[in-house]
């Protein structure tokens, strides 16, 4: 009895169960070229980022606008001798506005280097700030405040992006503008003196208008006790990021408009800062591409093993049900053809629209697999089956790429359906028989 069982197990090494294990090993081997394609996608994406960084270096980088703010120099007491003599150090503090209103019209265009493209913008900004100068400031003696040296400043991410004529008006006067902010590590920007006539307790209004070029994203720090920001652009695919979401927005194929309203209390800040503008407190709009070829190709390559698995499943079912063997090399060649789809998609999408590149790559691979399947199977029915499977898989993947939020659900459903079909078709297979 034991000998019969052993013979049955040994004979099963040439049967469908053994072949299923062998096909599984081939599937694992094909993960190597799929991983290599994913690595190539990352390499090309990094190359694109490096090349396009050169655009930002000449046009203007990601811009962060902080201001208008007032900068007040003061003398900080380092030490005081027994005779009352003080050792002083000149420092600056920042006075934030009571109200800040910013409006911007943003023109977005594409700039290219070789085959790589990026979005650049020119923001036409108008900003109005109202200040109430404090009489007293905690930690600073009134006699140490240098009100005659008070100046208005605007901190920028990249000052080279400033374009055209910039105007700063206060008290009905056009102020002379100088480079730099005098704020140490926040030195990128401009400043303008206020004439030396203001004192604590005075009120002040500042109007600014300027054009600013940048790439990628535009950030605005809402520094007012109340800040209202309105941005509009002809770009149809904005990405609203940053600390604060818009209170209202509209997006269409013709562009977008968005409004923000914030309170400084939400940032945990008072009206006076002894350091520069804080990080992570900005309103941010990213001018994104609706389709990023590299991210889409990378996402599709993550489904590579599923493509190979489903195609191998059809070949294996044909082998089990028809009794006609399919050589492991034939499995491998079919799998490599599927892996080449992702390589073709990457290469074509760098020159063509992603949808068109996807369609061309899928058509080539489906034709290759169908023609090879015909020679392997010698059956029109099974060739049609593998072709229909390929068409369904490519259509499914394209749909998943368009509906990212439901990708996991749809992928799980597909696997359940595929497994149910395989279980039904192989329900009467003798997995111990000697031949597949």
UniProtKB/TrEMBL annotation:
It comes from the Bacteria. One of its GO terms (cellular component) is plasma membrane. It holds the Pfam family CreD. Keywords: Membrane, Transmembrane, Transmembrane helix. The keyword Transmembrane helix applies. The keyword Zinc-finger does not apply. The chain crosses the membrane at residues 20-41, 303-323, 329-348, 355-373, 379-399, 406-425. InterPro entries: Uncharacterised_IM_CreD. NCBIfam families: PRK11715.1-1. This is Inner membrane protein. It comes from Kordiimonas lacus.
């Amino acid at each position: 009895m034991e000998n019969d069982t052993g013979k049955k197990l040994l004979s099963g090494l040439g049967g469908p169960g053994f072949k299923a294990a062998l096909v599984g090993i081939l599937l694992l081997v094909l993960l190597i070229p799929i991983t290599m394609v994913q690595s190539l996608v990352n390499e090309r994406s990094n190359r694109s980022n490096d090349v396009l960084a050169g655009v930002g270096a000449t046009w203007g980088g990601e811009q962060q606008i902080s201001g208008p703010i007032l900068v007040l120099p003061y003398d900080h007491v380092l030490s005081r001798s027994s005779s009352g003599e003080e050792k002083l150090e000149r420092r600056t503090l920042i006075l934030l506005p009571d109200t800040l209103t910013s409006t911007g019209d943003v023109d977005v265009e594409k700039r290219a280097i070789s085959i790589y493209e990026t979005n650049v913008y020119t923001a036409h900004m108008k900003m109005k700030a109202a200040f109430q100068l404090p009489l007293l400031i905690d930690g600073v003696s009134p006699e140490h405040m240098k009100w005659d040296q008070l100046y208005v400043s605007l901190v920028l991410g990249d000052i080279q992006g400033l374009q055209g004529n910039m105007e700063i008006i206060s008290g009905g006067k056009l102020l002379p503008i100088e480079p730099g902010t005098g704020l140490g590590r926040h030195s990128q920007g401009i400043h303008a003196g206020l004439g030396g006539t203001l004192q604590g307790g005075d009120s002040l209004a500042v109007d600014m208008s300027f054009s600013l070029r940048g790439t990628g994203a535009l950030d605005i720090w809402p520094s007012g006790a109340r800040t209202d920001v309105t941005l509009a652009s002809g770009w149809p695919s904005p990405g609203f990021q940053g600390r604060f979401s818009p209170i209202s927005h509209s997006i269409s194929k013709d562009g977008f408009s968005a409004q923000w309203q914030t309170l400084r209390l939400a940032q945990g800040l008072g009206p006076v800062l002894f350091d520069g503008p804080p990080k992570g407190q900005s309103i941010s709009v990213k001018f994104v591409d609706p389709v990023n070829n590299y991210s889409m190709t990378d996402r599709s390559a993550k489904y590579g093993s599923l493509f190979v698995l489903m195609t191998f499943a059809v070949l294996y079912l044909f082998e089990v049900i028809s009794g006609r063997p399919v050589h492991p090399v034939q499995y491998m060649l079919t799998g490599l053809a599927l892996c080449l789809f992702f390589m073709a998609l990457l290469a074509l999408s760098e020159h063509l629209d992603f949808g068109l590149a996807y369609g061309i790559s899928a058509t080539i691979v489906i034709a290759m697999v169908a023609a090879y399947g015909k020679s392997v199977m010698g059956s029109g029915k099974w060739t049609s089956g593998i072709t229909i499977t390929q068409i369904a898989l490519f259509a499914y993947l394209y749909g998943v790429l368009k509906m990212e939020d439901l990708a996991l659900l749809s992928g799980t459903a597909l696997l359940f359906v595929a497994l149910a079909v395989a279980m039904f078709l192989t329900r009467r297979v003798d997995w111990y028989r000697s031949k597949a």
